[in-house]
Known about the structure:
Strands 14-13-12-11-7-10-9-8-15 form a 9-stranded mixed beta sheet, with helices on both faces. A 6-stranded parallel beta sheet has the order 3-2-1-4-5-6, sandwiched between helices. It is built from 16 helices and 15 strands. Helix 5 runs parallel beside helix 6 (151-164) and helix 10 packs parallel to helix 15 (424-443). It folds into 2 domains: 5-144, NAD(P)-binding Rossmann-like Domain (Rossmann fold), CATH 3.40.50.720; 177-466, Dihydrodipicolinate Reductase, domain 2, CATH 3.30.360. By secondary structure, the chain is of the alpha/beta class. Bound molecules: 6-O-phosphono-beta-D-glucopyranose. 6-O-phosphono-beta-D-glucopyranose is lined by residues 175, 213, 232-233.
Amino acid sequence: MINPFVMVIFGATGDLARTKLIPALFSLYKKKQLPKDFYIIGFARRDLINDGFLQIFESLNDKKEWNDFLRYISYHQGDFSDEKAYISLTGKLNLLEKNNNHLNFLYYLATPPVNYLEIIHGLQESELIDKKKEDIHRTRLIIEKPFGKDLETARNLDRKLSENFDERQIFRVDHYLAKETVQNMIAFRFANGIFEPVWNNNYIDHVQITWGEVKGVGGRGKFFDGVGLLRDVAQNHLLQLIATIAMEQPKTFSKEGVRDARAKAIKAIRGISSKDILENIVRGQYKDYLLEKDVSPKSETETFVAMKLFVDSPRFKDVPFYLRAGKKVPKDVVEISIVFIQTCHILFKEFGCPEIGNVLTIHIQPDEGIILRVITKKPDSKLALGTVDMKFTYQEEFGNKGADAYEKLLLDVFDGDQMLFNRSDELESSWELITQILRGWESQGPVMKFYDSGTWGPIEANRLIEKDGKKWL
Ligand code: BG6
């Protein structure tokens, strides 16, 4: 049973609300997963009236259900720094509470991060944050990444959050944690006894993580140009993917049990010295990036990174993790490959072994699923070896690719379940590493390498892995 709620979406005319939040809320509504009483208030600066606001979501307009859903949404125009905007918001919320005194108040920060502090200030000044212990669960703050620009700003933001909210009220979103395939990693690793014994440096040669998008920055130039791919994707999604592979078994399958294990894994990622940054981190920009809308013509923002990292835990000591992530690459794909040490040659050297033997690939998206590549004797041959794939896909097995990440996150917010949300120590560790890279880039002058759109980044990304005698799969 989900409690009735009012959700105020700050930045409601922006990309996130348009492409993720409102569609997810609408989909939950269609599936009858929202309570009878709920209200969505879109808070933004643009001078719109209700109808103008709702037109933004026209593409969702599927017949009668959309019109029904509109009854629950309204627009609140105001500047995030304007006290009056919060006073009138308070008036609206009080009115709603009068009709339903069981309402939860959910404040969703879907704005660019520069607005976070003023919104928190506005909420605090207008006493919209309920700090009474007995009522703490009724008010929740949902905040999107990036949380800060570097370690220092992340710490400042966190300080502000903890001054104003109890930790149980803060929901720090990394939507990759809610992807079905990412959640499945805990089940896959710890419910199947056959993987645990080989999940370590005795058996694993290296790990590869590839994250790619065919599209460029599109309409998000303004946001992206101030952030860059390292902060936009690596600091959060990619490090969390490392954590799913590197973490130890949680003590309990509980909110803190899982968050402890994740935090420990991220903390164990080895720091990187300025010297190693040149060796182990590649920074790239696609060639026509400077022509993108709202991008500075002199921009030095990266749209691609490749990295070689290590996790200093007994389990993964000296196992390299190679990551590459970029916009305008050949394929929309997110996948993790665990490449096992090749043992085929022990018995079959003279017959010829495939170059790469066992690989376990987790397709985060698309084609959500898991593939285990094994070596096999080719039929009808005296002895010739090749590889075959043992494959499971969500689509074939369950008839769909799993729940949408934002739907899952919203349900957890309604429910007050923080397991799939970042804790502040996870963020602190991830920012420590990312800030070392940012500082290294600053001190080393132009380290940018350029790449053609539609390729897998600059040539240096290949060299990064090939100099270790390995290849991107
Ligand atoms: C967001 C990034 O966090 O994730 C975007 O800000 C990126 O740049 C998006 O496009 C990708 O999300 P998904 O769920 O489509 O993989």
